[in-house]
Amino acid sequence: MLQSRPVIHLVDQDSLTRNDLASVLADVGYAVSVYDDAESFLNRLPRDHMSPQCIVLDVFLPGMSGLGLQQTLRNLNVTTPLLFVSSHVDIGTVVEAIKTGAFDFLEKPIHQQILVRRVQEALDLDSAAVREREQQQRFLDRMRKLSRRECDVFELLISGRSTKEISRSLKVGLQTVAKHRARVLQKLEARSVVELVRRIARTSPAKLQMREEFPSDTSAS
């Protein structure tokens, strides 16, 4: 379930600006974590978070720049929405940030209502991503309940094999295949093989360690 309180990660080297922005965001109910440089943020990098989050990031930071941090997060496959802020807006920097995936770019001093509105929009976007991760995790948890033989049938089903082809491949009868197919659909709470394929396509490949996750049931029936 989504946590009730969204989290804002605020990365800004200017303590006055950082405190002002943190106060504005805290006043509307957000939990705010503050950092004065990119390295401090990376040392506490939230991964696979299950609450909506947003990163508010200054372009100019000591050490690694805001754009450098953005690229690092991209390399780490961190998809948390990133909202750039800067007192010196250079159109080339804005274009680079947006093209690389930034949610928005705001110029300091920032109007409080604009900041809150854009942060909420970024959180709404991340909320959808969190719900998707929750759904993926539930699907993976259900996959772990499959037996080894059901896993074999499942893999052949999503590869497009027919019941007859699965029967020949596993050297079992058609009725046995039908039984396992029904159990796979039931355990994975899917109405059809098409739905299974759709769910697999939406699940992170890094999490689909199927052969390592399933039990060592070697029953051929």
Please characterize this protein's 3D structure.
This protein has ten helices and five strands; from the N terminus they run βαβαβαβαβαααααα. The chain is α/β, with parallel strands linked by helices. The chain folds into two domains: 7-130, 3-Layer(aba) Sandwich (Rossmann fold); 144-213, Winged helix-like DNA-binding domain superfamily/Winged helix DNA-binding domain (Arc Repressor Mutant, subunit A, Orthogonal Bundle), CATH 1.10.10.10. The chain has a five-stranded parallel sheet with strand order 2-1-3-4-5, sandwiched between helices. α7 (163-170) crosses α8 (174-187).
Order of helices and strands: EHEHEHEHEHHHHHH
Q: Radius of gyration, rounded?
A: 23 Å
Q: Tell me about the largest β-sheet.
A: 5 strands, parallel
Structural class: alpha/beta
| CATH class placement of the largest domain | Alpha Beta
> How many strands appear in the DSSP assignment?
5
Approximate shape: elongated
**What is the terminal separation in angstroms?**
38 Å
Number of helices: 10
Mean pLDDT: 85
| CATH architecture type of the largest domain | 3-Layer(aba) Sandwich
Strand order of the largest sheet: 2-1-3-4-5
Number of individual domains: 2
In CATH, the homologous superfamily of the largest domain goes by the name: Response regulator
**Helix percentage range:** 40-55%
CATH topology label of the largest domain = Rossmann fold
